Amino acid sequence: xxxxxxxxxxxxxxxxxxxxxxxxxxxxxxxxxxxxxxxxxxxxxxxxxxxxxxxxxxxxxxxxxxxxxxxxxxxxxxxxxxxxxxxxxxxxxxxxxxxxxxxxxxxxxxxxxxxxxxxxxxxxxxxxxxxxxxxxxxxxxxxxxxxxxxxxxxxxxxxxxxxxxxxxxxxxxxxxxxxxxxxxxxxxxxxxxxxxxxxxxxxxxxxxxxxxxxxxxxxxxxxxxxxxxxxxxxxxxxxxxxxxxxxxxxxxxxxxxxxxxxxxxxxxxxxxxxxxxxxxxxxxxxxxxxxxxxxxxxxxxxxxxxxxxxxxxxxxxxxxxxxxxxxxxxxxxxxxxxxxxxxxxxxxxxxxxxxxxxxxxxxxxxxxxxxxxxxxxxxxxxxxxxxxxxxxxxxxxxxxxxxxxxxxxxxxxxxxxxxxxxxxxxxxxxxxxxxxxxxxxxxxxxxxxxxxxxxxxxxxxxxxxxxxxx
Length: 470
Ligand code: AMP
Ligand code: ZN
What we know:
The chain has 15 helices and 16 strands. By secondary structure, it is α/β, with parallel strands linked by helices. Strand 5 and strand 6 (about 155-160) form a beta hairpin. It starts with a strand and ends with a strand. The protein binds adenosine monophosphate and zinc ion.
């Protein structure tokens, strides 16, 4: 049984779906005002591993990743800052029109899709754009106004947090203590409570609504899109931990007030990618894109491998050295896999294979323990009691969860002529050739493993062996 850490209860819980074998999952998507950075991409690698694990366990997953193309303010709270999309329009010297905003959104959305494809992330059922759902926000806000959960002031419609006694329940946010420490500068004095947030902000360039032209708030967007595509209550909601205090608590407050039902049953959050002790952020200079890694010779799936060496909910410190070291490991994994013989002479012990399968299942089910799952693959590769073809099949099965595309990943390497190799490697190659001639495959397999451990791979071709540096 899959166990997942639910931020709502703070506990690792057994996952029980709402509907038999179908799982609805909402993943907070990117704000498309800039390129995604490798920290953002951790959120989608994590959601992908979660989704693949569920699929591996036999569930059918309906995943929605929204595209935020309006409403997300630079301040993240709803007090201050301008819309991040407006910031992008200014940065790119474009007019402040809806058409220009959509152009920017489409451009960064395409870049986002390219990134996640390079990371071998399965595409969701749908990527709904926030600006395509204005009617849905209006309907939801109308319900909140009718039920007395919202009120109008001079700059917009706000949610009244005092009407939702459970406000802050996600992550058990200590409201009073926190509010007292907040600076009150710039706080809207018309609001009834400090934590109240805007559902609709008035603005002349915005969309028509029953209350006046304006823009939806970022939180109402996610609530309305999630419920539209997944129903009023669905199984899993994911995002980065920075979303817990405000964005996700606000989503819960407005959705649950409108429907009287829980929004999502399991809330899962990934920890951050950190650089020099600070969270990587699009607004800071510490912002590294996937393409920056690729330009520096890092394969996107080596980045994915690096991420999976940590649990999704532990922070991870980015350094070039760490990612380069992960790439060395990943390359070795790919090469060792490629060197596994497709047909092996004698079968492995079936019980041993079952043990590996059971261990992998335990690690996956233990809140997606990818570091242990990767360590298990290394243990399997070293295990002399398992024959190559069984190793191959097990790894291919495990890779359905890890998504490293181990079988089809190639590192461009150059065939090294035997005479250019260090002497001891030349020696091993020739001994291995002899062993193969004598059909002593046990010996030749042992030698190949030694050659791999020394950092080379061997491919047997009709014209003789080809040697590659790993
Ligand atoms: P955004 O595009 O800013 O709306 O963020 C997209 C996703 O990235 C959200 O789930 C954020 O919580 C997450 N995120 C932002 N910064 C980081 C980071 N440094 N490490 C991991 N996830 C992050
Ligand atoms: Zn969201």
